[in-house]
Design goal:
By secondary structure, this protein is α+β, with helices and mostly antiparallel strands. 55% of the residues lie in helices and 7% in strands. A hairpin with a 7-residue loop joins strand 2 and strand 3. Helix 12 crosses helix 14, helix 15 packs antiparallel against helix 16 and helix 16 runs antiparallel to helix 17. The chain is globular and about 75 Å long. The C terminus is likely disordered. It is found in: Nucleus. Putative transcription activator involved in regulating light control of development.
């Protein structure tokens, strides 16, 4: 698989599932687990808590020497592929915060509620549509919760007030936790070079870990050694500490708000869908077209349900469009029977439908 991915998808970062790898450790290193109770804790720190590749390398060597694992072939094989599974090597690559195959596995579990190995292909299509409908419904429930309720704010900063209006509820909860915890840190400027500044960010308690945040005042950008933004797409507490305490930031910097985590992420319609050969299919597959339309209908229905006037306006428009679609279907069949253009290629009809629909709205 690795060779195929490198050839077919050369610009893609191929990762190995961290969870599956760690599940193999007790099996291959049972003698170490049984003999040394502290081994698991130290190894967990080496894998999960090292920030840079140098930190990982140093702790890895220390553990191998301490527990007599220098000549272990299985560990050496894992080490040779460390760039594919060790978090310290992958923090600068955007992975939406994922380090395991949890996303695909949860989708597999989701579809198992609708299809089985004995499901016929003809039944699979219908069950697949039901599964998509259920998925969309759950997604819309979350959208409604985001738009109709308001979480409790934990700070008096205006940036939190703005973030709750921009982010989805899940994204906001992550941002809020980072913003709240940035108050536990102190930032000290350690270097200035032109418009660039380097800050040392350290916790106020007993934790002695130090992070470094470099800020470019010209481009209003910042990079932290934890690389949370690069990996997850949400600002870390260390950068927020510098922004809030040194710059008195009142609003979210636009370049640090990823559209995919915002309330309006789905407002832009996706018109073209590439097929398996990389060509654009323009949504010719009926299931994909239906899925795309249902996403739009959910949003339209939500707006139309806000008042009786909006509901009646939408209902009138939908009735008219429904009749026009039936007309398109009838005229399309007549054209096909007469050997004329297909139902998707009738300019006169398309112009008539667009004109009528515009007048309705």
């Amino acid at each position: 698989m690795a060779k195929a991915i490198a050839e077919v998808l050369p610009n893609i970062t191929h990762r190995l599932c961290l969870w599956h790898i760690l599940q193999k450790f007790p099996e291959h290193l049972a003698h170490v687990y049984n003999k040394f109770p502290d081994f698991q804790k130290e190894f967990h720190h080496c894998i999960h808590d090292t920030i840079t590749a140098d930190e990982f390398e140093e702790e890895w060597v220390t553990i191998l020497v301490k527990y007599g694992l220098v000549g272990n072939d299985w560990l050496q094989n894992l080490y040779n592929r460390r760039e594919k599974w060790v978090p310290a090597y992958l923090r600068t690559t955007f992975c939406a915060g994922m380090s395991t195959t949890q996303r695909s596995e949860s989708i597999n579990k989701f579809f198992k509620d609708y299809v089985r190995s004995s499901t016929m292909v003809s039944d699979f299509v219908h069950q697949y549509e039901k599964a998509l409908d259920a998925c969309y419904f759950k997604e819309k429930e979350k959208d409604v919760r985001t738009k109709s309720s308001r979480p409790v704010l934990k700070t008096c900063w205006g940036i939190e007030e703005e973030a709750v209006k921009v982010y989805t509820r899940k994204s906001f909860s992550i941002f809020q936790a980072e913003l709240f915890n940035c108050q536990r840190y102190k930032a000290t400027k350690v270097q200035t070079e032109g418009e660039s500044k380097m800050y040392e960010v350290a916790p106020k308690g007993n934790d002695k870990r130090i992070y470094y945040v470099s800020v470019d005042c010209r481009s209003s950008t910042a990079i932290c050694t934890c690389h949370m933004f690069e990996f997850l797409g949400i600002l870390c507490r260390h950068i927020l500490c510098v922004f809030m305490k040194k710059s008195n930031l009142d609003c979210l910097p636009p370049n640090y708000v990823l559209e995919k985590w915002t309330i309006n992420a789905k407002s832009r319609a996706i018109r073209e869908i590439p097929n398996y050969e990389g060509h654009v299919s323009n949504g010719e597959d009926q299931i994909m077209r239906k899925s795309h339309l249902m996403m739009q209908f959910y949003d339209i229905a939500e707006l139309g349900s806000q008042s009786r006037f909006q509901m009646e306006h939408l209902s009138l428009a939908l009735d008219k469009v429904h009749k026009e679609l039936l007309l398109m279907d009838t005229m399309g069949e007549q054209n096909l029977e007469a050997g004329d253009m297909s139902r998707n290629e009738s300019p006169a009809l398309r112009s008539q439908v667009i004109s009528n629909f515009s007048q309705t709205l």
